[in-house]
């Protein structure tokens, strides 16, 4: 509890005194807490975040109550945590169906809300503790999991039965829609299950009434690599501002080239690129060379667990 001239911060459950005029960084360092990020980024769990403490941060970070500890002079008690921790909860697998030969849709019912935005990711743990990250494809916990030959988690999920209990940690990541300028053109691009976060972001943007054009590119080697095509075509027929572009390597060429043929200039656009790390890097470079500002590009690269 604060007195007239002292404020108490809560750092992951431990009280940290903060003298009036101190920054959060001063108070944490004085209490011997190493701030875990070179940019001194921390996340407020509760309490008012002073606007000055969010100066220069991306909109997606501001929306998740991130703040810069070195700029934050709190006026009231604040509860804080290191970035990207999320909560840990249990969930039951409720449904499992195949969206293509290799992509499994998994639906989960959590014990309590994860408080996620569609497009963010969670880490799913099996009862034996093995954990893997998956993007969240909607407001409910829906995952698109590619079955990888020899893959420990993807094969386990492919065999798991409804009613199976798992542990989830999250949410994490800043690949999600924030209204910002509702007329700004949006470009969503990814290959394989990179569609999962893009599908979530698309639904969120349409649901929040985004008015600018939205182009979704889904890359695959061939027709068999595509999924949810009927749903996406139906959405494109329903929404005049939404264009769905499946891009097949064996028919249309590499995805970055397909995009630059359609959109040689991307100045003023906002981009989301997700999926295989090599493709994400190529796409990010293509969007930047097309004129998209680097801070307007959100990316999630699906790094295999061992390379994380
Ligand atoms: C932020 C983030 C979000 C992710 N979102 C998704 C998602 O929405 N959907 C999804 O399907 N995956 C996603 N992934 C990847 C996922 O976390 C796992 O890496 C993947 O499911 C493989 O796990 P596994 O246990 O089945 O395979 P493992 O047992 O970990 O790996 C088995 C073998 O396959 C190789 N391997 C692992 N991943 C790949 C790959 N992608 N391509 C080729 N070889 C691979 C490994 O190097 C290893 O040799 C995401 C990863 C990250 C970091």
Describe the structure using short key phrases:
alpha/beta, binds flavin-adenine dinucleotide, 308 residues, six-stranded antiparallel beta sheet, Rossmann fold, Elongation Factor Tu (Ef-tu), domain 3, Ubiquitin-like (UB roll), single chain
How would you sum up this structure, described in words?
The chain has 308 residues and is of the alpha/beta class. It folds into 3 domains: 6-81, Roll (Ubiquitin-like (UB roll)), CATH 3.10.20.30; 87-172, Translation factors (Elongation Factor Tu (Ef-tu), domain 3); 186-307, Nucleotide-binding domain of ferredoxin-NADP reductase (FNR) module (Rossmann fold). The protein is 22% helix and 32% strand. Strands 9-8-11-6-7-10 form a 6-stranded antiparallel sheet. The protein has a 5-stranded mixed sheet with strand order 2-1-5-3-4. Helix 7 (255-262) packs parallel to helix 8. The model has no long low-confidence stretch (mean pLDDT 92). The structure holds flavin-adenine dinucleotide. The site of flavin-adenine dinucleotide (FAD) has 23 residues, from strand 9, strand 10 and helix 3.
């Amino acid at each position: 509890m604060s007195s007239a001239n002292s404020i108490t911060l809560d750092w992951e459950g431990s009280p940290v005194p903060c003298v009036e005029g101190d920054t959060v960084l001063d108070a944490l360092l004085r209490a011997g807490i190493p701030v875990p990020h070179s940019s001194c980024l921390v996340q407020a769990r509760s309490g008012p975040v002073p606007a000055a403490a969010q100066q220069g941060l991306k909109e997606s970070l501001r929306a998740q109550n991130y703040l810069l500890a070195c700029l934050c002079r709190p006026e009231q008690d604040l509860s804080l945590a290191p970035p990207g921790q999320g909560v840990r909860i249990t969930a039951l697998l409720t449904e499992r169906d195949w969206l293509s030969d290799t992509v499994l849709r998994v639906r989960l019912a959590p014990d309590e809300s994860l408080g996620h935005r569609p497009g963010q990711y969670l880490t799913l743990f099996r009862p034996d503790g093995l954990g893997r990250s998956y993007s969240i494809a909607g407001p409910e916990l829906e995952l698109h999991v590619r079955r990888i030959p020899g893959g420990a988690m993807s094969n386990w999920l492919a065999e798991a039965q409804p009613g199976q209990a798992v542990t989830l940690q999250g949410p994490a990541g800043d690949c999600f829609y924030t209204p910002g300028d509702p007329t700004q053109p949006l470009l969503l691009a990814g290959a394989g299950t990179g569609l999962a976060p893009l599908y979530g972001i698309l639904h969120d943007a349409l649901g929040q009434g985004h008015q600018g054009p939205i182009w979704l590119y889904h890359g695959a080697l061939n027709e068999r690599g595509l999924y949810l095509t009927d749903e996406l075509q139906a959405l494109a027929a329903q929404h005049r501002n939404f264009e769905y572009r499946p891009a097949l390597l064996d028919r249309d060429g590499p995805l970055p080239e397909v995009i630059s043929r359609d959109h040689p200039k991307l100045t003023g656009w906002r981009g989301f690129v997700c999926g295989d790390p090599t493709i994400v890097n190529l796409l990010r470079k293509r969007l930047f060379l097309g004129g998209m500002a680097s801070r307007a590009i959100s990316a999630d690269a699906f790094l295999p667990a061992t390379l994380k």
